[in-house]
Structures are given as C-alpha cells and as structure tokens.
Design goal:
alpha+beta; Outer membrane lipoprotein wza fold like; 6 domains; 5-stranded mixed sheet; 36 strands; flat
C-alpha cells in the first residue's frame, strides 16, 4: 500500500508544480487522493520551492537625499533663484505699468475726477472707511471690492443720468498697499504690505525670494474666497509669458512647497545650470530650458545619471531619445561631437566644403589650410579656437592667410573650431571671446571721404589690401601715413610700398588733393562708425552709403542729427535766459515775492547736457526725403540709437520713469503709470517729444488721446507757472525755453543710452 501512495503523492507534486499561482487544477486529477494526501503533497512542494526575498522598499526621502548629495557636488547654480534679488520692494512707487482695469478698489485709495463739457470741475475723492466715496451732488457711492473698470462704468452711468453734455475722466491718484501672507520655502515667511500693482512674482520679493529648496514651477496663491491659482515662474523667465502671473489682492496667501526634482545639465548646452523639472517633462524640455545645444554638441551622445531605486545608488547610462521621461534622473551631460579617439576639427565660413575634418595628434594648422578651397575669403584675419578637456575655450588665435608665419607652427587640438570670414559678410568672430580680441586689431583706413575699419593681423601690404577691397585710389596722393598709437610711431611713405606688421589700434591715412572737404561723424548701430571726409555738396544719404549697413537693432525712426551752429545758438539762448531768470529771482527775493516756480525752472535748466544740444528734428531714416535732401555741413554729427522698446515720462509726475512700450499705451495711461500728476502739473499743456525730435501737443481735448505713442517717445508734463507778481509774467517765455531744452536733452539722453 505504501508504493501506490508515494507514486500518487509524487504525481500530485508534479501536477501542482506545473501550475502557476492562481491557475485552476482539473479536479479529475485529484479524485483518487484523500485530503490528507493532498496536504502532504503541498507540504513537500513548499519545501522544494526556492526562497524568494522581498524587494527592498526605498523611501522617497532616501532617494531625495542621494539626489541632493549629487546636485550639491556641482559647480552649477540652480536656475531662477536670483530673479528675486533685483525686484524692488518699495510700496511708495506705483510701478512701471498703466493701472489695469481689473484692479480692485481698497480702503484709502484716492480718485481724481475731471468733469468736462457743460459742467467743468476737478476734484479728489477719498475711499472712506465704509467703502464708499462721497461724490458732490450725487451722494455716497460704494466702490470697495469693485474693479477700477466697474467703478468707471458706474460713475459714467450716474453722470449720464444726472447731467446733460458732461463727460467724466477718472484716475487713481493714490493707491493703498495690499496686505498678503507668504508662507513655505521662502527666505522670510510672514505678512507683508505690498505695492498694489504687485504680481505673484514681484510680491515674493518682499519675503526675500524663494529659498533654493522651494519650487519655482508650482507656486500657489489662495484667495479669501477659496479660489486657488498656480504659477510657473519658468514660463516668465524662459518664455516671457506673464499670463499666469496675476495681480495680487488683499488677503491673498502665497504658498511655496518644496521642489519635487532638480536636474543638473552640463556640457554642450548654451546655459548649463541646475533646473527644476515637473512631472511628465522630457529631456527635450530640459534642453530647451538650457537654451539648446552648442555648435559642437553630439546630440546622440548624452550621458545620464540615474538613481537606482533598488539600491539608492547612481548609474550612468546614455539617453535613448530626447522624448525620454526625466523620472529618477539626477544629471545630464551633453558630450562634444568628437571624442579623443575620433578627433576632428570644425571648419566654417568662406570655404567650399565647411564641416568636420579628421586630425591626428600632429596635424598642424598649415596642413589644414593647404587642403581647403576658399570662396570670397577675407585673408588678413582668421580665427582658431581651441578647447580644453571640459570643452571650455582654452585659447583664441588670430592668423593671416597671406602671412604663413602667423600659423605655420600651430598644432590643432581635437574639437577645435576654425573660422574664415567672408569679405562681403563683415563677420569675423566665432565667440564673444574672439569678438573682443578681434576688436583690438581693427585697422582704420582713412580713404578720401570714407573710413574703413577691418581687422588685420600679421604682415600687411597696404597696396594688396586696397586692391583687394577695390578702392578707387585715383585721386589719392602718393604719400600715406601709418600711425601706431601704442608705439607712438608715425611713418610717411608711398602707400604702394608700405609694409608693416599689423598690431593693435593701427591707422593708415591717405592724403587727398581735395582741400575743401568737410568732416562729419556717425556713431551708434552702424557697421562702420567713425569720422568721414566728404565733399561740401554731400547729403545725409551719401553718408549712409559709406557706413556699410545699419545693424539689425538700429532704431531708424529715432536717428539723432545735431549741428554745431544750432548748438551754439541754443547755448547763447540758454545763457541769456538764465541771466534774465537770475535777475528776476534776485529782485523778487528782495521784494518778498513768491519765487518757488522760478526756482524749479532754474534747477531744471541745470540738468541740460551741452552735448545733447543742437538737434535738428525730423525723419532721417535712410529712405526719407529729409535724408536725401539735407546737405551736410562741417562738424555735423549723426547718432543711430538701438531699438528702445520703451517710453519715458518726465516732469511733474509722482514717479518719472521709463517703462516697457506696448501698443495700447496712451498719454493718459502713461501718466497714470508714472504715479499721476503732481500738484503743480500743467495738465492742459502736456506734450510728447517723438523719437525723431518733433514735439506734439497731447492735450487737444480732455482725454489726451490724440497723440499715438510709439517706442522711444518721451511724454513731458510741465510745471504750471503760478505767480501773483505781474513783473514776472514776462519771464514765462524764458522758463518755457529752459524747460523745453531740458526735457529735449533728457529725451536724447534716453535714446543714446538705451
């Protein structure tokens, strides 16, 4: 009886072992066995089963500690946290933006109301403790908690119902600070009174900014009514998107939670740093944060450090694709295009076949040059940039294709870059480092009425240079001058035989037999700024033909044209005006008259910059009729500013400022953005100094909407001259001259320094 039982149990063990957990067994296979036999078989099977250890459980805190330890080893800084160091936290300034229509009215706000038409009046209305304003003849009107636009609409409807032919203009003169609370991972949590125009990002500046453990990607704002808003600071910093950076309201609570994940990106990206990443973001998103790859980045060779969740150790792998998720990634390194085992050099510019060229440990620059075919190359300066093991620029070398001594002995290292400039492009630099170095080797070539600035290195023949450029030397005398300021050497020679080694700050001048040439100067955003010799009948557009071209950032609508004769006349006018003003002030002081206004004008006149005088207002853009018809005079100066994208508000406003231009800005909104009018502002004589110097009146009607504001414009609110002394009335034109010149000088200064 024992043998059949053993056989049966063995069979059952075989049956049970052949079925996976949870899989049903055919009952017919067990029909001949007793329950005791089945249990015996199961016990034998469990004895034979290999022991399995449970998977280790790694706490999130442990994973984060390992990741943070690796991040802290990096020399990179966490991106975005220095944003708050430059945010002003004063509540005295209104801010640099026009008042938004959704601004919520608070206690202690103050309105300025202007009525015009059949009833004219100007008065201020304070928001009382009960949340209302007391409007003359209309009674108490509730405004607290309503938007500025809602209050405007309400008052307009009441005026329309109560009066006929009366228009209303409403502005906020004084604004109350907003009380908010900031908690979480910020440097100084607490409750703060903040600027009423503050947004989430600017309000955080009051707390000292977000600490480096706090999130920049999921900033929360909770309102009194329970509404919750989220803000990703990266949208603002990387994309310039302010759509979620909402204006704060009293009672708001801003909450900063700890950041979820940081990733350190190094190597061949344009902005290596430590970035905070959100769930579902990819490697492609991280590369975008870092402003993309450099020119020598190998996009198929990206190294990743991954936290192994089983052991909390760090593994190194290679990225499969840019769509890869960033889960558990600690750092990313973008490797250069070429490794040491497969060395090459990148060659670009004026050659037939740009690209990567293989090199050995002994390849020289001379060997590389010998196998290239050049197209329209500028031969007197080329650039070699060599890199160290960390792919940082190790050295920049300039060489001259016409002078083999400048490159013959140079060995080329792996991953180097060589750039040959095209004679037509006027572009010589590879990086900012080479750009700064090349600028020191600019050769100034004074030729007839033109000035050429081109970099030259090594041995140099003036004759071959001017022939290569195709310059007309027919009216140039044989004698030329070579000046080297660093060595204080002046050499006079026949330019056809002139040879020298080009060094820093060289100048070659050719003498012309023409003696009645005029000298004009052009500077700013042009390819070849400098002083030019021209014939007396030359016009402004003739000068433009000599400067190469305007730079991409040139602001052609704001070209500043100044003339010495006009400057001299303005200087005389200023001097006479100041003398008359000082005499009047002295007389008035002796009589005890009110002189406050005149003192202000005198102080304002002292701000006039002499170099900003003498401007001829008008459109001097290249295609304008003014530039084609205006004859140049000796000593004329033209300055081409950069695109300003800003407007200025000066004069009798609470906070004279310059702020970013937008298409919707008006004179009225700009004045409001500057804090509104001062008590002595002359609201009916506001004017706009256009970028081209032309002055337009802005107050042809009460709403001041007749002048279209454009980038570079300056809005001026003059001071109303109030005097009870009839003897001073004759000085009003004098004060007008001084104030106009002062503000015009300030407008020019803002364009020159944008």
């Amino acid at each position: 009886m024992k043998r059949p039982l053993i056989i049966s149990i063995a069979s059952l063990i075989l049956i049970l072992s052949s079925h996976t957990f949870g899989q049903e067994i055919d009952p017919s296979l067990l029909k001949d066995l007793s329950p005791a036999q089945i249990e015996l078989a199961k016990s034998q099977l469990n004895k034979n089963k290999p022991e399995t250890k449970p998977k280790p459980i790694v706490k999130e805190s442990t994973k984060k500690a390992v990741a943070d330890a690796d991040i802290n080893k990096s020399t990179n800084k966490k991106y975005g946290y220095n944003y708050f160091s430059s945010i002003p936290t004063s509540i005295s300034a209104v801010g640099d933006l026009p008042l938004p229509n959704d601004y919520k009215i608070s206690l202690n706000d103050q309105f300025t109301v202007i009525l015009s038409g059949s009833k004219e009046d100007i008065f201020d209305l304070n928001v009382n403790l009960d949340g209302s304003i007391l409007f003359p003849e209309l009674g108490s009107i509730s405004v607290v908690g309503e938007s500025f636009q809602e209050v405007k609409t309400k008052l307009k409807n009441l005026i329309d119902q109560s009066y006929i032919g009366v228009q209303i203009d409403l502005s906020l003169k004084n604004l109350s600070a907003k009380k908010i609370t900031i908690v979480g991972a910020v440097k100084t949590p607490g409750t703060y009174l903040v600027n009423p125009f503050s947004t989430i990002s600017s309000a955080l500046g009051y707390s000292g900014g977000i600490s480096e453990i706090g999130t920049l990607r999921n900033i929360r704002l909770v309102r009194n009514n329970g509404a919750t808003y989220t803000f990703d600071l990266y949208k603002l910093l990387i994309n310039g998107d302010r759509s979620d950076d909402i204006t704060i309201e009293s009672g708001d609570v801003i909450i900063i939670d700890p950041a979820r994940q940081f990733i350190n990106i190094t190597g061949q990206v344009k902005r290596p740093a430590i970035y905070e990443v959100r769930k579902n973001e990819t490697l492609d998103d991280l590369i975008r944060f870092a402003l993309g790859f450099t020119q020598i980045a190998n996009t198929s060779n990206i190294s990743l450090k991954i936290l192994d969740i089983k052991s909390s150790s760090i593994e190194n792998i290679n990225a499969i694709n840019l769509d890869s998720a960033l889960t558990d990634i600690i750092s990313v390194n973008v490797n250069p295009y070429v490794s040491k085992s497969n060395a090459s050099v990148r060659i670009s510019g004026a050659i037939k076949e740009p690209g990567f060229y293989p090199i050995t440990d002994n390849t020289s620059l001379e060997e590389i040059i010998s196998m290239l075919e050049f197209i329209d190359v500028y031969p007197w300066l080329a650039v070699l940039e060599q890199f160290d093991d960390d792919n940082l620029i190790k050295s920049t070398t300039l060489f001259n294709l016409k002078d083999p001594s400048t490159y013959r002995s140079i060995k080329v290292l792996p991953n180097s870059q060589i750039f040959f400039a095209n004679i037509n492009s006027r572009s010589f630099a590879v990086s900012s480092m080479s750009k700064n170095l090349i600028a020191d080797y600019d050769l100034r070539l004074n030729h007839k009425q033109g000035v050429y600035n081109l970099p030259v290195i090594g041995r140099f023949e003036v004759k071959s240079f001017v022939e290569y450029l195709g310059l007309d030397m027919s009216d140039v005398e044989d004698e030329a001058r070579y000046i080297s300021p660093l060595e204080n050497i002046i050499i006079k020679d026949d330019y056809k035989n002139m040879q020298f080694i080009a060094k820093k700050y060289n100048t070659v001048s050719f003498r012309s037999p023409v003696n009645d040439l005029i000298t004009v100067k052009i500077s700013g955003a042009v390819d070849f700024p400098g002083t030019y010799r021209m014939t007396p009948d030359s016009v402004v557009s003739d000068l433009y033909d000599l400067i190469g071209d305007f730079k991409a950032e040139a602001f052609l609508d704001g070209i500043i044209f100044t003339r010495e004769s006009i400057r001299n006349r303005q200087r005389i006018s200023i001097q006479k005006s100041r003398e008359n003003l000082n005499k009047a002030l002295l007389t008035s002081v002796q009589k005890g008259d009110e002189i406050g206004d005149l003192n202000v004008i005198r102080a304002l006149s002292e701000t006039i910059e002499p170099e900003n005088l003498g401007r001829i207002a008008g459109d001097f853009s290249p295609q304008s009729s003014t530039s084609r018809n205006t004859i140049l005079l000796d000593g004329d100066v033209i300055f081409v500013p950069k695109n300003p994208n800003a407007i200025n508000v000066l004069g009798e406003v609470l906070n004279p400022i310059a702020f970013e231009y937008n298409e919707k800005v008006t004179v009225r909104s700009a004045v409001r953005g500057a804090g509104g009018y001062q008590d002595y502002a002359d609201k009916r004589k506001v004017y706009v100094i256009k970028a081209n110097g032309i002055i337009e009146r802005a107050n042809r009607n009460i709403f001041m909407r007749d002048v279209k504001i454009q980038p570079g414009d300056t809005i001026v609110v003059p001071r109303k001259i109030i005097t009870n002394n009839p003897g001073l009335e004759s000085l009003i034109p004098v004060t007008q001259i001084l104030s106009d010149l002062a503000f015009s000088s300030a407008a020019i200064d803002s364009l020159q320094n944008n």
